[in-house]
Design a protein that fits this description.
It is a single chain. By secondary structure, the chain is of the alpha/beta class. The protein contains 9 helices and 15 strands. It has 3 domains: 91 residues, Periplasmic binding protein-like II (D-Maltodextrin-Binding Protein, domain 2, 3-Layer(aba) Sandwich), CATH 3.40.190.10; 79 residues, 3-Layer(aba) Sandwich (D-Maltodextrin-Binding Protein, domain 2), CATH 3.40.190.10; 85 residues, ACT domain (Alpha-Beta Plaits, 2-Layer Sandwich), CATH 3.30.70. Strand 1, helix 1 and strand 2 form a beta-alpha-beta unit. The two termini are 31 Å apart. The structure holds prephenic acid. Prephenic acid binds next to helix 1, strand 3, helix 4 and helix 6. It catalyses: prephenate + H(+) = 3-phenylpyruvate + CO2 + H2O.
């Protein structure tokens, strides 16, 4: 049966680029927000959700990770890393001059990736946050010529916008990691795509705040020579100073090392939850 994939829309978002690079032939549905897309998998309206997780310049997409931990616990079944190139998009009636731009629209993560550009060239413009870069492009297409969007080339094409400035992100090596979420047990990505590496994401809660607690947690991985690619603390939302730790380990879940880590940490009073063990795919094309 054809699978149904949900993504952060509308058309022309980076998430859509991520989805198109991993899935073809499947039915695709766009959602206005990340929580709506994740709810749709939880409610079984769709089989798979693709949502942004982390950007190389701006860091974690907190909305995604918080919703995954606190609201809808969906397993991460794959990750795709997409090169991100941000461009300044205006409608066909706009002039070619930055000084005529009074409003800039985009997703908060895209705005943050272009802070220096905005500071240097568009200080006069008001910044407006939108639910996605695609939404910003849609709004600019329907707006007066003083509006600009920050987004990708696909959005320029989809909404008939012209590119006033290319590659306006502040640091060149820009990528975003997208998580593929699904309750399905069987592999969701076709075997035609070659995964680079395997990763496992764990959620760890410490019993209380005491000296050396995090050191003990990290030691359980260290002496087993398990390489961590990310550790992040997020508020538990139960009071100041209470945190979860989200840890990415650069290997697939196995039946020896991971159960060992889990047992050791549980003996210390920690709670260890598996958020996913999954292949990592890389998108190479620069057509973003
Ligand atoms: O707005 C989009 O186009 C998205 O897909 C979201 C998103 C994000 O949340 O980080 C994805 C990639 C870019 O980093 C900018 C925006």
């Amino acid at each position: 049966m054809t699978k149904k994939i949900g993504y952060l829309g509308p058309k022309g978002t980076f998430t859509k680029i991520a989805v198109d690079s991993l899935f073809n032939g499947e039915e695709k549905a766009d959602y206005a927000t990340i929580p709506e897309c994740m709810d749709a998998v939880e409610n079984e309206e769709i089989d798979i959700a693709v949502v942004p997780l982390e950007n190389a310049i701006e860091g974690t997409v907190h909305l995604t990770i918080d919703y995954m931990i606190h609201q809808v616990r969906l397993p991460i079944v794959a990750e795709i890393v997409v090169p991100i190139k941000q461009h300044l998009l205006v409608n066909e009636r706009a002039t070619d001059s930055f000084v005529d731009i009074a409003h800039v629209y985009s997703h908060s993560h895209a705005i943050a990736q272009c802070h220096q550009f905005l500071h240097k060239h568009l200080q006069q413009a008001d910044v407006h946050y939108t639910t996605s870069t695609g939404k910003a492009a849609e709004m600019v297409a329907a707006s007066d010529p003083t509006a600009a969007a920050i987004g990708n080339k696909l959005a320029a094409k989809e909404y008939g916008l012209k590119i006033l400035a290319e590659d306006i992100h502040d640091y060149p090596n820009n990528h975003t990691r997208f998580a593929v979420l699904s309750k399905q047990e069987e592999p969701v990505i076709s075997s035609g795509h070659a995964a680079g590496t395997q990763k496992t994401t764990l959620l760890i809660t410490l019993p209380s705040d005491y000296a050396g607690a995090l050191h003990q947690v990290l030691s359980a991985f260290a002496w087993r020579k398990m390489n961590l690619s990310k550790i992040e603390s997020r508020p538990m939302k139960t009071g100041l100073g209470n945190y979860y730790f989200i840890i990415d380990v650069n290997q697939a879940y196995d039946q020896v090392l991971f159960p060992g880590v889990k047992a050791e940490l549980e003996a210390l009073g920690c709670k260890v939850t598996l958020l996913g063990t999954y292949p990592v795919y890389q998108m190479n094309t620069d057509e973003v």
